Amino acid sequence: MPAVELDVYLFVAAVLFVCGAVCMATKRNAIGVLMGVELVLNGANLNFVAFARYTALGLDGQVIALFVIVLAAAEAAVALAIALSFYNNHLTIDVDRGNELHG
Amino acid sequence: MEIVKSALEPLFSLIHAGSVWAFVLATIGAAVAVVLSQNVVRMAFWLIIALGSTAGLFFALDADFLGAAQLLVYVGGTLVLLVFGVMLTASGPFMQMKTSPGEGVLAGFIGFSLLGLLATSVCTVAWDPHGAVAPIAAAGYNPAEEGNTTRALGMSLLGLRPDKDLGQENARPGTGYLLPFEVASVHLLVVLVGAAYLARAKRRQAPPAL
């Protein structure tokens, strides 16, 4: 069984990124859009940690990944509060209904 | 005892490689399932699988503290927050908002082309300028055999970099992360206060009596 190398980790991160981007673009539920953002951030994190392990980036990559985790948690809290406020105002979570600024 | 350990060494390495491949496949499969599932609760379940197996990949990459933080913060915190959001915003028992088939086909086409672009660049770029990509051992203060990055991470958040300073000839000290750590702390405080303000229960005002 071949060992998992840097290319495999980068490919997994690419799959996570693409899935998150497609999820953000196609889901009509605001919570689903949030889940897509989490997938994208995880793909970036996996890239950072893989480069920290296999190249001269070293510990810096892990520190940056730690900051990404913290900021992702903060982003999820704020976005969820916005989603709840949206739900209070529109009585739905469908992002296609948020078209008050439509010209 | 040593003989048994050395005899079992190939078995252990086989189990290690197999578990890493299992985490790789679980991550990819769960990420695709998040995109394909229509029910938002099932999306949350597949997201738990995807993030948990990403934590497994972190453990495989010698980032044990980061894997534990991923499990605690993402799977234990953020996902619970998302599931609470799903429960608070559910408008019916069969809440499904389908995307139209045309949009799905277009998104699949764009997604596959983006994935092809990224995969070809992953395969073609030589990530190490000196040729073979070899894993580097963590230097000096925190040997990789201990499997322990916690001390190094904590000291770098305090602004100290023994992993870059010890045993190096260059006089320039390594860069620490004290200022980003403080900024992140204040940022978290402000964000949580703002989120609590945004999501507070609003009292509906009764219309004024005529």
Low-confidence stretches of chain B: 131-140
Number of helices of chain A: 3
Based on CA inertia axes, which overall geometry of chain B fits?
A: extended
Specify the helix fraction band of chain A: over 70%
Large-scale geometry of chain A: elongated
Secondary-structure class of chain A: mainly alpha
CATH architecture assignment of chain A? Orthogonal Bundle
Q: Which CATH class of chain A?
A: Mainly Alpha
What does this structure look like?
The complex is a heterodimer of chains A (103) and B (210). Chain A is mainly alpha-helical. In chain A, 52% of the residues are buried. The model of chain A has no long low-confidence stretch (mean pLDDT 88). Chain A is built from 3 helices and no strands. Chain A is elongated and about 50 Å long. Chain B has helices at 2-7, 9-36, 40-60, 64-89, 101-124, 150-157, 162-165, 178-198. Chain B has a domain at 1-89: Up-down Bundle (Four Helix Bundle (Hemerythrin (Met), subunit A)), CATH 1.20.120.1200. The interface between A and B is large, with 75 and 88 residues.
